[in-house]
Structure formats: C-alpha cells, structure tokens
Design brief:
The complex is a heterodimer. By secondary structure, chain A is mostly helical. Chain A has a domain at 8-226. Chain A contains 13 helices and no strands. By secondary structure, chain B is mainly alpha-helical. Chain B is 78% helix and 3% strand. The longest helix of chain B has 29 residues, at 61-89. The chains are: A mainly alpha, B mainly alpha. The interface between A and B is large, with 41 and 48 residues.
Chain lengths: 316, 290
Amino acid sequence: MTFDFLDSFLITGLFSVVMVTGLALLLHLQLGLTRIANFGVVGFWGIGMYVFGVLYVKVDWSFGDPYQFLVCAAIATIASGLAGLLVGWLIADLDTDGVLVVTLGFATAVQLVATAQDDITGGARGMGGLDFPFDIGKVKDNELLWLGFTMAVVAGILFYVWRVHRSPYGRHLIAVGANERLARSLGKSTSRTKLWLFVIASAAMGLLGAMNGVMVRFLDIGNLGIDITLAAMAGLILGGTARVWGAVVGVFLTVGVFDIVIQSYLPLPREWYTQAIPVMREAIFGLTLIIVLLFRPYGILGDMRRDSLMRKIHGR
Amino acid sequence: MDFILQSLVIGLTENAPLVLAAIGFALLYKLTGLINVAYSETITLGAYFGMWLNTTYGLDFYTVLIPAGLLAGVVSLVTYLVLFRPAKRRNVGGLEMIIISFGLSIFLRHALQFVFGYPERFFDVPPPDTIMLFGVGVTSFRLLALASVAVISLLLWLFIQRTSYGLQMRALASDEALAKVSGIRPLAVTMLVWAIAGVAGGMAGAFYGVGTSVSPLLGWRQFLLILMVALVGRNWGLGGVIAVGICTSVALVAMALQFDQALYAQLVLIVIFIVILKVRGSRLAETAKV
C-alpha cells in the first residue's frame, strides 16, 4: 500500500486533528461530565512536551531509542500527572471563577518557567534535537508511522472515556457536575473524585504533549499559548460536551476543516497561509464557542443519551 | 531604603494602568457576577483606538485618551447588549457564560487584526524627558500617566460612592430584586456599568499601549493579574481593589529588581494569589446575573 497522496501538509494536518481530538476527549471528562472548565489544558500538555524534550535532549542516557523515548515519555507523563494532582487539589473546593483563575494561572506559570529557564528549555530561541524513536527510512515514513502511534494512543483515550461513561465512576463524575453538594451529602467524596480526574486527565495530556514534541522535533514557547486549549474547547463544544463522540465530531469540523481541508485542498493565495488563515482560524473558533453556546448549548450531538433514557423511564 | 523607594516609584509609575483596569473589571464583576474574559480585549481595543486616533489625525496622547476610552466603552456596551444580555435571557449558565466571554475574547483579539493590521503598532509620541523622583529617574510621560490614573481612579471611586447612580449600582449588585422594587431600572444601571468598565479598561489600554507597543495580545498579557487583583481585592470593596492593585504593582517591581528577572516576579505573584484564593476559598453561588 502506498501513501503517495499524503503530503507533508496533510500528515501535519491529520496529526493536529488527532492530537486535539485526544485533548478534547480528556477535556470532555472535565468540562462535559464534571463541569470543570479547565482553561489550563496547554499547561499540562506543555509540561509533558518540555519535560520529555529536556530529558531526551539534555540528559546523557546510557541506552538509546526506543528505551530512551519510553523512559522520557513515562517521566513526562508522571510529571504532568503530579501537576494535575496539585491543580486538582487547588481547585477541589473552588467555584467556577476560582477554577478559571487557578487553571489559567497554572498555564501562565508553565509558560513563564519555560521562558525564564532558557538555559534548560531554550526559552524564546527554542530547542531542537528531538527525534523519532525509530528510523524506517524517509522523514515522511517516520512521520506517518508516528501519526499511527498517536492515533493508537488517542483511540485508547477514546476507549477509556467510553468506558468511564458506562462505569460507576462516570456516574459519580456526572453527579459532581450536576449537583456537587447533593453528591457530597449522599456520602460521595467529591474532592477525591476531582483529584483523581485531574491526575488521570493531566497525565494523558502530558503524554500527548510528549508525542507532539517528537512530531514537531523543535520545542518553541509559542506552542504554550492559549491556541491548543481553544482548539480543544471549540471542538468539544461544537460536537457536544455531553457525548463521547462530541469531541471527535467537533474537532474534525473545526481543526479538520482548517488544518486539512483549507490547508491542503483549497486553492488559496500562498501568502494567506502565513497570517490571514491562522488568524481567521482562531477568530472562527472563538465565534464557534459563542454561537454554539447561545443557540445549541449541547452541540451538534445534543444531550446525553442517558437523559433521554431517563425521560422514557419516567414517561416524560 | 533605596530599594524600597525604587520599587515604590517604578512600581507606581509603570503599573498604574493595572489599578485602573482592575477597577473597571471589579465593577463589572461585582454587578454581574461574571468573569468577563473579553475585558482583556476592551483593554487592547483602547490601545488600538488611541493609536489609531494618534497616528491618523496627529493628535497628542492626552487628547486621544478620552475618545479611546469612550470608544472602548461603546464596544463594551455593545457586547453586553448584543451578546451577554440575550445570553442571560436564554438562561445560559455561569460556566457557559465564562466560555462565551472567552470565545468573544478570542474572536475580538483576532478580528481586530483584520481591521488594524497584523504587525505591532506604536503611538507617535515625542521622546519623554527624564525627571528624578526620590533619586529614581522616571520619564515625564510615566509620571503624567500615574497622575492621570490616580485622578481617574479617584473620580470613579467618588462616582460610585457619592452619587445616586453609584448608589443604584451598589444596590443592584447587592440585591437585584430589592433594587427593582426600590424603583431602580436594572437595564439602565447595568448598561452604565458596562460602559464605565469599558472606558476604564480602554484608558488603561491606551496607557499600556503608549508605554510599550500596541499588539493583539496587549490586554491578554495583563488579564491574569487584573483578574487576580480584582478577585483578591473585592472583599474590601473598590478601595480594596485599588490597594491590592497598588501593592501588586510595587511588589512586581520589587521582585523584578530582586530576582533580576521580571518573569520570576510574575510567577511568584501568580503563586501568591492562587494560595490566597485557596486559603480564603472562593465558593460562591454561580450567579451570572449579567
């Protein structure tokens, strides 16, 4: 089987869609089920990317790839999980406003540290030296294989989220999101639930960050802006925050349209791609959030199926 | 002693717009219960409007300051009437309201680049003189900015504490139902607050812009500090916001001088504010009155 139709733009676009889908699925657990607006997605993702990058490039490992990649990615995942533990503890007893401040503050803190510690992270200059943990020939072949690995990881996340929806833990998350006080009065430990949720979701975000580092092979603090959080949130809200497939559908319709259809297939003037299209992309993502939440708050896929089942049971 | 004087002088003169912006944000937050993320773009737009009036019509900075603030106030009012008021009527929840304001912030930040262009822009102002204040060199422009911010903040404070409109605002913020039966028209007062907050944010943006440069991220870079100052200071009213804003401005410079790295100063402040919020707790009902 040949993949000649896949050029570099298309592979990058597909990778971007897969990456944001993974983040949107994890955000779905926080925002969709538990109603915690995590504006610091990029912070956890960035920790994963930078911890991986610094360990991979700066540490003189006695073994090579693929073990070097596995060890660095594992440490990056644990580091993001620990950051999730800290942020989860901080927001456990805060309202929506407090959560916004803490998650936004956390993301800003990660960016500040990455910028200030430039002797380690490369700061504004950036840091190169990352590479694929394998070499099967041309760069395009390596990128394609890496895209496959990332798709497998995101498929795993999708399966996990799907399982959570059908588990007591998932119902617990929904209860916390619907009425935290009531859940607590029924003897449920809501703080522990939030803490556990943040640890798992943040660790997975960190793993995705590490995988992104491998694909881009150059770490730049420009990646630590609000863009990735916005893309995940816009996709999730457009698709539907309450449904498992909402993140997948939404990200394909937002990031997919811009990073694949417009980037690879529309015959637009070349100069548009440097500034006009990226700026328009972000503006439309912002507009998407407004329009969907005003006119179709549950997104394209609508409310949870569980609710329609309950309506049938209760004859309403 | 020199260090304290340096921190005080530089902190107050460099970060004076932070206090003004925080007052506007706190006003809006007190009345509506909404964290309006798009307030950062009100600040940015103030800078862009000021720069546009300054460079297009050749007006000096102090002539464009009030029109820039007024234009930002109009934008703020329009966002309320076109977006947040209809959202409230549709019973959009508090969490969704924050995300809507986040979406608006992103939209405005990028859309304005199609109007004003992509590159960083600058005010066309003459180079300022340097004046020695307690042994610290300060540009005449920054000193004037500090004085202007102090006067505007005082006027705002007097307006809210001493006028009947201010009383109506405070009444509406305390208890909307009671304010209504007392004959207060919520729409008029709410519109007034959105406009005043916009004017304060726009003027702060113009001060930020003339001090450095005008770029789409201008307001967003200041937003977290403004948000934290407003949230931490709100318990002691508008005076508290002003006091926390001043302390933050001075602490930022003191730490920047101490660490020799402004980024660490911001980092330490973020940590301090988060710890305060954590210790104090921030459990409020999601009001989203807007």
